[in-house]
Write a sequence for this structure.
């Protein structure tokens, strides 16, 4: 967590470097043609803007002498009309083009991020908050839009207007431009200074926003726990704190940034004053006409104005760059567990599972499994029992290769899991956990996940074979019942039942049930036992269970304690041994009384 925060803080102050710019460009490359069209439109727009003052000059300088010249007046009006038409038409087309580009580029990027996240290893989700990932795929991508689409044309437009206006002033009277020149270094200096400040302050605002989103996601997904623990106030306070951090950083940013506009405006005014003084003198000397001076005043605005706009552009760029860095960071996150080159597919396995001296830790200094040696023969049903938090689920996660052991080896039929493709491995193993998430849709949809081509009849038969009809078919709409978001419209027991049937349909060679029947109450333990027996028949099964009555049919019971195998054998053997298992069993019997 702290690692993540450090990194985010570093990102918050990140600036646009060449690598980021290159990657942004690589995203925009597929739409380069349309971007070029936008650039062309910007040039047309700039021309339409800079020719307008010329019409003004004509009116001021020649209106008196040509008052009766209808053709002259009409052509001026037409010319001016065309510039406005170009301005509006061109503006509309540019906006539309930019919009379509944004949809395409951002849509592609979102899809790419989504696929990327699906490939990441489980350990990434252990250390990254859901909200952060969502914020990146959703909001940060949105924030990229200006950098990818609007920015280049807008920058070009401002630059073109500035250059064109400068050139035209120079064309009318080269001396006038000379008077304006001292303002340029001042403007540049201000820009460099504000750019520095901007990168820091806007980056920080973006980071604060990201934290707010992360918090919101966590609150909403965990609302039940929050209400149950009566932690609403703590949670609200934390949210308020995050919001006030966001406000604080935004206020600081606007305060620091807010001075740029007035500063450049003041420079504009200085520019106009300089022009009026110098132009007035030239007018008095008869070197310039009144129309030319008016034209120049417009050009001063066109000359210095774009520089002011750069401020706004820069603000958007800074936000976008910070967002881009986050997005790239996510794209750069490599799955830690990936197929080695040249792995083979695991096909038609017998189902012998072996753990050899397996050691494992989630965090470097805290080993969870201290050398587990366990062989489970094909077709055997093994129960893992032991106190909670001692590594049973961890062992099962290693079997699914959600993590790799630090040392030692996990294998199926003698194949090291690291030498087979993950896809084929997971086709051979089904896992049912205590709290499974179902996907929105009906129960039938969820069952069909395991075996897409199964008929309704097959699904019903599977339900009946496991004795789940009592629970599932009795629901008002039977298998057509909607499970609600993440399955929350079903009870935990019903959800577990759906998952058991799903595992049954998947018909894997190796089945792992991790506390998978903890919430199912089938009148008598006998029914659960029968269902489990049916489920485990003909495959290797590993059952992690607290309710010891549910594992009576196991061929072997393995007791895990403090990351090691403490005892193993049949129920009777272990009872005779009179140690951990016997104690657990005794405690269970007493609790049942
Ligand atoms: N994703 C994780 N990251 C860090 N530690 C974990 C993680 N999952 C489990 N642990 C720790 O590993 C230990 C064993 O957990 P687990 O295998 O789930 O126990 P159990 O025997 O109850 O299934 C616990 O101390 C737990 O705190
Ligand atoms: Mg567990």
């Amino acid at each position: 967590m702290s690692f993540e925060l450090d990194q985010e803080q570093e990102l918050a102050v990140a600036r646009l470097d060449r690598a980021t710019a290159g990657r942004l460009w690589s995203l925009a490359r597929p739409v380069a043609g349309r971007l070029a069209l936008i650039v062309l439109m910007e040039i047309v727009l700039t021309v339409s803007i800079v020719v307008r003052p010329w019409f003004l000059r004509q009116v001021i300088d020649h209106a008196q002498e040509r008052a009766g010249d209808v053709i002259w007046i009409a052509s001026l009006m037409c010319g001016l009309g065309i510039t406005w038409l170009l301005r509006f038409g061109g503006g509309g087309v540019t906006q539309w083009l930019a919009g379509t580009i944004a949809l395409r580029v951002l849509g592609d990027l979102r899809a790419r991020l989504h696929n990327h996240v699906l490939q990441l290893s489980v350990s990434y989700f252990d250390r990254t908050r859901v909200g952060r990932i969502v914020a990146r795929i959703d909001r940060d991508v949105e924030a990229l839009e200006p950098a990818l689409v609007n920015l280049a044309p807008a920058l070009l437009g401002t630059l073109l207007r500035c250059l064109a206006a400068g050139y035209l002033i120079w064309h009318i009277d080269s001396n006038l431009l000379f008077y304006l020149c001292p303002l340029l270094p001042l403007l540049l200096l201000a820009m460099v200074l504000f750019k520095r400040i901007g990168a820091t302050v806007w980056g920080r605002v973006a980071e604060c926003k990201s934290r707010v989103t992360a918090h919101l996601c966590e609150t909403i997904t965990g609302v039940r726990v929050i209400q149950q623990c009566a932690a609403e106030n703590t949670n609200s306070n934390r949210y308020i704190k995050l919001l006030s951090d966001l406000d604080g950083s935004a206020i600081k940013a606007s305060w620091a940034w807010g001075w740029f506009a007035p500063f450049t405006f003041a420079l504009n005014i200085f520019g106009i004053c300089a022009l009026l003084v110098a132009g007035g003198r030239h007018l008095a000397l008869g070197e310039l006409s009144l129309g030319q001076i008016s034209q120049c005043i417009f050009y001063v605005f066109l000359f210095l104005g774009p520089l002011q706009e750069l401020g706004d552009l820069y603000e958007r760029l800074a936000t976008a760059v910070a967002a881009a860095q986050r997005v790239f960071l996510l794209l750069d996150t490599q799955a830690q567990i990936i197929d080695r080159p040249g792995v083979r597919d695991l096909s038609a396995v017998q189902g012998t599972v072996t753990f050899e001296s397996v050691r494992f830790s989630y965090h470097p200094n805290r080993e969870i499994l201290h050398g587990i040696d366990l062989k489970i023969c094909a077709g055997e049903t093994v129960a893992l029992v032991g106190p909670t938090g001692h590594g049973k689920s961890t062992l099962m996660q290693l079997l699914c290769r959600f993590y790799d052991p630090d040392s030692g080896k996990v294998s199926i039929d003698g194949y090291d899991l690291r030498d087979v493709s993950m896809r084929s491995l997971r086709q051979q193993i089904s896992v049912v956990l205590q709290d499974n998430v179902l996907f929105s849709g009906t129960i039938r949809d969820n069952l069909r996940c395991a075996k897409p081509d199964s008929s309704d009849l097959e699904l019903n038969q599977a339900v009946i074979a496991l004795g789940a009809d009592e629970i599932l078919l009795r629901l008002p709409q039977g298998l057509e019942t909607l499970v609600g978001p993440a399955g929350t419209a079903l009870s935990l027991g019903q959800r577990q039942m759906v998952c058991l049937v799903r595992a049954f349909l998947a018909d894997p060679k190796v089945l792992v049930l991790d506390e998978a029947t903890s919430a199912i109450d089938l009148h008598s333990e006998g029914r659960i036992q029968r269902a489990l027996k049916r489920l485990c028949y003909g495959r290797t099964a590993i059952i992690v269970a607290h309710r010891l009555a549910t594992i009576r049919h196991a061929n072997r019971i393995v007791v895990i304690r403090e990351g090691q195998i403490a005892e193993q054998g049949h129920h009777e053997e272990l009872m005779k041994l009179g140690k951990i298992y016997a104690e657990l069993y005794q405690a269970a019997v007493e609790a049942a009384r």
Observations:
- Residues 392-393, 514 surround magnesium ion (ligand 2) (CB under 6 Å).
- The chain has two domains: 2-332, 353-592.
- The two ends are 45 Å apart (CA to CA).
